[in-house]
Batch of 3 targets.
Target 1
Amino acid sequence: MLCLVCNQTISNTTTWNMLFSLSRSQHKSPLCTECMQQLEEISGEQCRLCSRPFSKLAAKYRKGDLCNDCFIWEEQPEWSGLLERNLSIFHYNEFLKEVLARFKFRGDHELVNIFASYMRQKFKQISDRKNTPIIIPVPLSPERLYERGFNQAYSLASLLHFPIDDILERVHTEKQSKKKRTERVLADSPFSLRHNIQRDRYANKQLLLIDDIYTTGTTLRQISKVLKPLSPKSICALTLARG
């Protein structure tokens, strides 16, 4: 078996890291030990709302159990309380940045399998048997979807093996990765609900947004504002990386 990232043969040598992965996923990792060790899972003290690790944040940018960004979001009545919480799995380090670039922009869709066990494990922290949230992937515009051939958020959501409600639409805008931080925050929302959805299905339900990267939180809050008229019980998010 070859590693999905470096294409080296995966050794049969058992390490503690591999045993930990096996105990969570119940199958062998598609990564070699060297590549697996470059995935940095977020741990320790972090922002209550966005999972930003405080270990990588100067004290002056922290407000109690919130990072400064989330504190500012919550100070604005327009945005306060819209997004209950985002859970991110990994630090957005150089290794993951390259993996996601191959996945999203170079059409290497098989790389999504790297994240299967991690997504399912984090999902268990959000859901339970009685209250499984409704899964909603962050959409791409039709133009971007045609360009890439798939929606990375939908692919990540599919790893959870639960029904997916693809109820959002997105108009075509400049790539988020090309925008400056202030441009992302100030941009008009490109999101809307699809027509003829069953609106009462979402009343008093837990909604879970799925995306690849949390950067400023603008995208998830714009979507939360679109979903709020459906009267959900809560809106949370699960993202692969915290940028």
Target 2
Amino acid sequence: MPAVEVHQLAQCITCHAWSPDRTMVALCPNNAEVHIYKFTMDKWERVHVLFKHDQIISGIDWSLRSNKIVTASHDRNSYVWNHEGSEWVPTLVILRLNRAALCVQWSPKENKFAVGSGAKTVCICYYEPENNWWVSKLIRKRHDSSVTSVAWHPDNIFLATTSTDGKCRVFSTFIKGVDTKDSGTSSSRDLKFGEQIVQLDLSSSWSFGVKWSPSGNTLAYAGHNSTVYFVEDVRNSPSAHNVAYRNLPLRDLLFVSERMVIGVGFDCNPMVFTKDDTGLWSFAKFLEERKTAQSNSKYGSQFSEAFGKLYGQSRHGANDGVDSLRARGIAHENTITCIIPLQKEGDKIVRRFSSSGLDGKVVIWELDYNTDIPE
């Protein structure tokens, strides 16, 4: 059983990100604002509120090296926030979108970031010092529907995306003048910007939560059909393996190590997937132990519980599913939408990570190397 810290910071949280020193957390409380909390005197104190977006913020990422925050919103805009003195100053990013921005992530070297959108487009954004602004190059006409998540390969060049068209794709994002000659492999530098490396047609439903393993050898993403897809050796000769499970779908994934993945989603309890010595992935367990229900559950109450979790009914409303979750003692009481690593830069194994969800909680998890993480 992992160590768990539960912090109620809002009524509902869309996404969150941590500062480089892990003393502050930025989150969106399901509106157009970013709230930044700092842990002082044994409690979380709100120290900043960032106002600039007009609609709900759907993505936040906080760079580890440059201490910049990037946000993406349904208002089709993205801002890069710089900490100047005691204030956070926003800089508008020229995205050129006609639909909502849905997700955002800094590249490993933090000289670029990617924005997925409802316009079937991915924006690769970079800074132009001559004009003192952030501009973007667009990957267009590759997706058939909204881009739900993006993930950078460790080489800083390849980018994986998932979409509601059910596909996972990998693209080259090499930009002359931004990426140096030593970026990525020799083969990646020969590829044009936006060139598609591979298209994976493994899922028959919406796809979410794409992630690379620490080495970049394995790619994983979740389908809305309660299946996780694992793909080895993506760039050369891809081999795929899928793991179907009986529980509700996942929304986000995290590689703890090369052989362990944690998924979070509508089931409110993180799920652990592991890779055995033969190279096959399988569902291992729930991260938290479930308590046995005290009363006899009828079919109606079971359906109500599943319906409440799947469609995110408020934890303050009258809902048998939410009451049942609370009775079981699970940290999250509603859909988990985001999972973020808390390890130091360069660590190959993630021992600490955090999750946030529609219940307004940020939960910090700490795994035991001896019992929780496979070698």
Target 3
Amino acid sequence: MSTIAASVPLPAPRRAWLTDLPVLLVAVVWGASYLAAKGITTTHTVVAVLVLRFAVVLPVLVAAGWRRLRALSAAQWRGAGLLGLVLSGIFLLETYGVVHTSATNAGLIISLTMIFTPLAEAAVTGVRPPRAFLAAAALSVAGVVLLTQGGGFTTPSLGDLLILLAAVARTAHVLAMSRIKAVQGADALSLTTVQLGGAVAVFALLAAVPGTGASPWAVAVGFGPREWAGLLFLSVFCTLFAFFVQMWAVRRTSPSRVSLLLGTEPLWAAAVGIALGGEHLGAVGLFGAVLVLAGTSWGRRAAATA
């Protein structure tokens, strides 16, 4: 999740790709993050991996934005801290979910956030979304149903359900950011830092509770080169690199353009899962994946033009 800054004039066409390419790369690494998380995490190491993942980047964020952090008001700290609690729930659901399902399913199901958010906003404001958006939402939901069936109609896996809940939690996070007045004027870097700090505090507390899995220290010691490479990929590229590219890009292009490029994340998740993870969708699942991608793309355009 990111905070998009105000719109600025579009760059010249011949230079647009120079801005688009790093943003598209963010979508690629986010798509690859599901397979990376799946490769280094088990049911017993979820909390420990989350502690390590964000403890690596948090000092960098604090150092980069220390002056602006000190300028936050008490109300902004409380608001950002509350958002951090929601964010911790999102990461827990996503990470436990990807352990129990495929990276392809995880990336496609989480894209339903793009459908859930306008629906939830419409429910809160009482403004009915356009018919085109409702049709797109129905298409996306039908796609997820097919995607999670594999070779036949069975009960969705635990991981599929957890990722679906993560999509709902992401929606709640977006709505909370738009409705908590104290954080609306906060600096994006400071807001992200406080949220991640709050999430890390939750993960650290959970790690200290007996029965929640291996300790972060034990997991760190047990990691080999492959696991550390995966962890650093999640920390450096999927968190630090992604955040700073978004901050850089929205100063050089439009928020809608950035959103459109980042919306390709589920496509890259499917591509990486199939090409590098050896995952197989089958004919029914492949058709469902196409419906999800088509529905979320259509729904995003319908919501933007409403």
